[in-house]
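lol ok so funny story. i was supposed to be doing the assay writeup but got distracted and ended up predicting the structure for this chain instead. priorities right. anyway since i did it might as well share w the group, maybe its usefull for someone
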Amino acid sequence: MTRERVLAAVVAGVAAVAYGVLALRHLARFEVRSWDLAIFEQAISGYADLSAPIVDVKGPDFHVLGDHFSPVTALAAPVYRLFPGPETLLVVQVLLVSWAIYVVTALALRRLGTTLGLVLGLLCATSFGVQAAIDAEFHEVAFAAPLLALAGAAWVERRYTAVAAWSVPLVFVKEDLGITVMVVGALLWWVGERRLGLITAGAGAAGFVLAVLVVLPAFNDAGQYAYTGNLGGESGLLETVVAEPATKIGALLLTFAITGFAALWSRWVLVVVPTFLWRFAGDVPTYWGIEWHYSLVLMPVVFCAAVEAIERVPRTRWLVPVGVGVSAVLFVGSPLTELADAETYRDTPRAEAARAAIDLIPAGASVETDIALLSHVVTDHQAYWTGTIGDVTPEYVLFDTGVGIGSPLEPTTWAESEHGGTWTTVYSEEGIVLARQE
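and the output, tada:
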């Protein structure tokens, strides 16, 4: 193994340990993120059982391929079958992201030398897009990170067939990435790889069209792509694009500023355009900023672009200190800083109470719960979210009355009103309430 690979492996390895500890401690402390981890676990559990990826969390008998086109998540099914649980998905994501960090760092070391290579590798490893993705728990875009890193590294080293080979599988990660593949194809055309560029762009276009117009509508109960209405929303496309300009311009500037804007000297940076377009045109405020997982796919792109720019235009290396300064400011109060807080390694009374309540629910029983507890009941139970349970009557209801989002304050009384019959409180501590239907 070369010196560059050893150093890159050290950076990626340290990142993997740090992010792994962070993700698993968030889960163990029952920190509220979203319902997405539960959604992906139910889908991957279906793949692991060689059955349909049904996600009851989204609604009874909801087929996940009617929501987003992410069949790539089935690759996690064999590991999940051996080690079922949300922890497995969190570790899988950490390993995928660390792989991307390794690729970017190794590229930077090969092309720019030890000092500058390590700086860019560390900036990538601690970038806001990576940290936010780990903080937001598991999402399918984790599979895109190493693919985009490998494609970017191949671009910098002029291995254009490899660029296409690593880019095209993105169409199986999420439907919007088909447009990203089209941009990669256009870049290949631009540098003279006309046939390869056409094939790549065509594959991206075909993947996008088939996903949005054929596959997703076929599995969707409404017979259409579920997110068409997000484009512009009720306000209209133009109004949505210009909404909250400070947030959007801030996200745009910070994405390039973490490289000291050096990435702008590379054509590869254009690969970020489709992601920014759909995010800023989407009528969903969480798309616009840097807090969630949506920037993860941008990180390997801008850092590979920065490597190319610095190599081709040597004066841009003097921009890297700007990236270091911006990254240092963003690091203050970021998720990684939690590792230095002793409280991170202690379970709260609320977490202990939640764990005790869940232990009282028999394996395989149906349970309705809130977002605060959802990811913790999916593995061994038929789990439903209270917002999408429909006409199903569960055997148990489990709510966090203190932290849960939209949870009833009196779960037992609420269950009798909502589902009928007689319900008995089985457990009530630290705001965690478990009730059973008699």
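Residues 349-437 form one domain. Residues 86-112 form the longest helix (27 residues).
back to the writeup now i swear
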